[in-house]
């Protein structure tokens, strides 16, 4: 069920945007649709998700209709603010979106497209657990307008999957990828490294298995221990070891080398794609500070510098919308310093780099030190962009601190 929501200012019950919000009607606009259901809670997961026994009054079979009520509300809010525009990307995340019938996901997609329109060639992604992907499901999703599937592979090694509480079998990833390919969808694979008991050889095996499936895109994330998770409790009790930072660094370097040799290029610290066209357009919208509306319990939204987040539990979310109220729990307008920190944090992780002229004049002299330390590419900096080296990607947090402290 994830951690607590952040504090913020009260959100209006009708969801109205502030009259002085500097909305750019030409700015890119995306939709995130959160599906908060999972069969089993993974031990490392801190996302806002719920198993069947945790729903307490919420109905999974009614979820699509409930979310479409928020879509209708959002169209009214944006129309009143003269902020309606076509969607550039749509992303179904979770949870496990494919626990819902493909027809429900299709209705939700048609709902946001009917409300806002969608640009030609827009990227529409659905996250999926390999166990929930069948030829019939992906064929129906493709017919609904889905263009891309992000499959939660995580590992190809059974004992690593067990350490992560993942329930799928490695061979199911292959059948899921084949089904997605047959339906004409682009394929991304998600991997996690640094699980308890995972060796460098285990990780190399997972990388090899992923590359054998010939995906268009691979995300590889270091395991992070989140407070309140089962895995955090296991580590605190000494039942399993905490991730080893040095081993995770070796795993990252191995991933970068193997993926580069296979024709992938990194475009964000944890993401690689075969071609620029196969990079995740939706995630790049987040990293560049574009506008998006997040639909569903616990989902976050951003319009022109205003941020808000919905109530967490599916039952509370449904109750708000049943009463024709906005499901927003609170909102905020970050000040200039907070926006500056976020811009540096996100854009410095991208291969295209952070424009040096976006840095405050007081910290620009520090770039020379980062170059000397081998963290930033010198030639790119001379050309006006702060681009991380491989060493810099391993120490990205240190780079951000140097540019913001």
Automatic annotation (TrEMBL):
Coiled coil: none annotated. Transmembrane segments: none annotated. It comes from the Bacteria. GO terms for biological process: porphyrin-containing compound biosynthetic process. Keywords: 4Fe-4S, Chaperone, Cytoplasm, Heme, Iron, Iron-sulfur, Metal-binding, Oxidoreductase, S-adenosyl-L-methionine. Residues 1-20 are annotated as: Disordered. It holds the Pfam family Radical_SAM. Residues 23-265 form the Radical SAM core domain. It is found in: Cytoplasm. One of its GO terms (cellular component) is cytoplasm. InterPro entries: Aldolase_TIM, Coproporphyrinogen-III_oxidase, Elp3/MiaA/NifB-like_rSAM, HemW-like, rSAM, rSAM_sf. One of its GO terms (molecular function) is 4 iron, 4 sulfur cluster binding. Belongs to the anaerobic coproporphyrinogen-III oxidase family. HemW subfamily. Probably acts as a heme chaperone, transferring heme to an unknown acceptor. Binds one molecule of heme per monomer, possibly covalently. Binds 1 [4Fe-4S] cluster. The cluster is coordinated with 3 cysteines and an exchangeable S-adenosyl-L-methionine. This is Heme chaperone HemW. It comes from Microbacterium pseudoresistens.
